[in-house]
Amino acid sequence: MEIQYVYTKKRAEFGRQCIFSDRPAELLVDIAPNPDALKEFVERDPVDRGVQVVQEMSEHDVNTERFETDSHGLNHAEGGWPKDVNAQEVEQVIRFRKKVEKDEMYISTVQTLGGQMEHCIKQNNAIDIYQDYFSDVEIQASEEPPSAKTINVFKDPYKDRGVAHISWYPDGPTKLAIAYCNTDFQRAPKDTSTESYVWDVINPNSPEMTLKPVSPLVCLEYNPKDAHILVGGCYNGQVAYWDCRKGSQPIETSEVSTGHRDPVWKVIWNQSKTGTECFSVSTDGQVLWWDIRKFAEPIEKLYLDATKKQDASQAQGAYVLEYEPTIPTKFMAGSEQGAIFSCNRKGKTDADKIVAVYPGHIGPVYALQRNPQFPKIFMSVGDWTTRIWSEDIKENAIMWTKYHQSGLTDGCWSTVRPAVFFTSKTDGTLDVWDLLFKQNDPTLTVQVSDEPLQSLRLQEHGRLMACGSQGGVATIVELSEGFYAQNRNERNLVNTIFERETRREKILEARHREMKLKEKKGGGGDDEEEHGEEQGEDLMAKAEQDFFAAIENEKKLRERRKEERENAMREAESAGNEEEQGGEEERQNLERVEEGGEEEADNSPNEEQAAAAAAPAEEKGETEGNEKA
Amino acid sequence: AEVEETFKRILSHKGVIGAIIVSYDGIPIRSSFAENDVTVQYCALIQQLAQKAKSAVRDLDPGNDLTFLRIRSKKNEIMVAPSPDYLLLVVQEPNDQP
């Protein structure tokens, strides 16, 4: 747009001097912005701009000086000879000797010394003064009170991690492999170290070796056959193995896709010809078998499914595995829901693989182990009790401890004495139980740490116990002699205890089954209920009477029957009022009660005998136990 | 002469394997062992040990002094009778008589 201003001037006025005058401002042109013009432009973002700052880098080489080593030997020469005598010259030596022997002092000294010496020699010849007295007398059960002493404490250099698992070196109590992991669900801070260590027992200041897995190790085991190989299960589900001689990095790790989907809580070495098989369990419900030479894929897989259908969705996650090298194809797993699975690896069909499911505990099963000397008996630790089971009795444990104040976290049998087992609790105490000494309470309770104890492991010889706490501190406790000295009669006594309890459970199982059968036979509805009720009451009364009157005979039986009839009449009266039944019902009930009474009378002599046999056996077992203690 | 007699008498006792008379600086004056190396070894080791034992006893109680040193090992017993200038060393095999 052109801005124009027309200016006119007369020709006659050209050249005339300009006279300026002020005048107010005048708007000449007003150009408003035109928004349409904006559309012809495009906003640019980002805008590239060059900047001129560059990081300075430089490259250097370093070469250390060569360190030279040399092997030397040392030659010892005969010394002490005075300067003028050359030790090699025989003549000089003889001359020197002769000179000394002529010395007065020499003669007298030798005589006195000789006298002293002879005295001692004769002493030696008379009696062996260093003889061992009582060496052939057997060491009885130790008289000293049971005790345990802390020997060494190993602290995790990093905070926030607890001791997840401990494994002793198989060739003697010299080394420990400890797995550290923060097992609180997703509560581990991000930069928690993943390292686990192998400690030498003598040096608690720094670990002997570091193991660096991909993710923190939750369990760690030495290969019992090859003491250099360790296998560990990680928090992220992988399994890895190390060779102590080859360094801190795992030799091989399993793939994340084919392994477990939850932390691998337990890994155990299998008894195999090659010594390279192991199997692992995790809370995702799978039990996987691995060959360490080929970690890409597990050899075999099993789901811990209680319905025996190998259904992955029904599988229960497990915390512990149990494996006895002498029974190679069977193993047991303790689940998160509290059930204990007994499985056979070589089962032909899926149903065969899971042989039995024991009811277990109310909460997760934290430890499971067979008694090393009685393989049919195993113990499990969970909720607030420890339970001892016999493999044959599947409905209930044969023995159990009382409910403790604090939860139990781990347990194991003693490797040396079959009656001793250990448990660790969340209040930081280690309990030592001796079934021959006391069955209601632990024989010894040791406060190992202020923080909850998470894991424990007994060394093979039975003397040293390693306990790991939640704060990352592992303590080695030495037990007093009574706990690892073997006792000759112990095996028999313990056997008696277990058999007695097994028999008791069997009797109870049989009774249960009978009761159920009778209930089914009883016909419909109310009659059955009353019948069942009376049966129940009769059984309870009878059980009490059986217990007290095991030695009495037929008279008691008759008295019992009379009582039953009276009870029945009372019951029938009150029941009759409620149920609107007539006198006929009463009589029928009376008849049935009499029949029931007779049946039970038939059964009761058998039960009495069994109870009678059990009671004296119990007494005998107890008195023997008291003698030995 | 008397020295000989004493020495022989000691050697004649039951169970005695050998005897050595050592001077204060570790030189064997008289030894019943045939091989020189054995003698020298015994001298050197035992003389040092006896010296150490003597100083230990004197350090613990300055009025005390070492009268006799016996080292009982699995196979035999080494007995050392010290004196200010010389040392009499006898190796005996113990008789395990009940």
From TrEMBL, chain A:
Keywords: Cell projection, Cilium, Cytoplasm, Cytoskeleton, Dynein, Microtubule, Motor protein, Repeat, WD repeat
Biased composition range(s): Basic and acidic residues: 514-524, 552-573, 584-595, 617-629
One Gene Ontology term of the molecular function aspect: dynein light chain binding
Region span, Disordered: 514-536, 549-629
PANTHER family: DYNEIN AXONEMAL INTERMEDIATE CHAIN 2, DYNEIN INTERMEDIATE CHAIN
Keyword Cytoplasm annotated: yes
Listed name of the protein: WD_REPEATS_REGION domain-containing protein
Low complexity: compositionally biased ranges: 607-616
Tree of life domain: Eukaryota
InterPro entries named among the record's database cross-references: Dynein_IC, WD40/YVTN_repeat-like_dom_sf, WD40_repeat_dom_sf, WD40_rpt
Gene3D superfamilies named in the record: YVTN repeat-like/Quinoprotein amine dehydrogenase
Species of origin: Macrostomum lignano
Principal place of residence: cytoplasm
Subcellular location: Cytoplasm, Cytoskeleton, Cilium axoneme
Biased composition (Acidic residues): 525-536
Any one of the GO CC terms: outer dynein arm
Higher taxonomy: Eukaryota, Metazoa, Spiralia, Lophotrochozoa, Platyhelminthes
Annotated family: Belongs to the dynein intermediate chain family.
UniProt keyword Cell cycle present: no
GO biological process: cilium movement; outer dynein arm assembly
From TrEMBL, chain B:
Matches recorded under InterPro entries: DYNLRB1/2, Roadblock/LAMTOR2_dom
Organism: Macrostomum lignano
Location of the protein in the cell: Cytoplasm, Cytoskeleton
Family under the similarity heading: Belongs to the GAMAD family.
Gene3D superfamilies listed in its UniProt record: Dynein light chain 2a, cytoplasmic
Domain Roadblock/LAMTOR2, residue spans: 3-92
Main location: cytoplasm
GO CC, alphabetical: cytoplasmic dynein complex; microtubule
SUPFAM superfamilies: Roadblock/LC7 domain
Keyword line: Cytoplasm, Cytoskeleton, Dynein, Microtubule, Motor protein, Transport
Lineage, broadest ranks: Eukaryota, Metazoa, Spiralia, Lophotrochozoa, Platyhelminthes
PANTHER family registered for this protein in UniProt: DYNEIN LIGHT CHAIN ROADBLOCK
Function: Acts as one of several non-catalytic accessory components of the cytoplasmic dynein 1 complex that are thought to be involved in linking dynein to cargos and to adapter proteins that regulate dynein function. Cytoplasmic dynein 1 acts as a motor for the intracellular retrograde motility of vesicles and organelles along microtubules.
Any single GO BP term: microtubule-based movement
Superkingdom of this protein's organism: Eukaryota
Name under which the protein is recorded: Roadblock/LAMTOR2 domain-containing protein
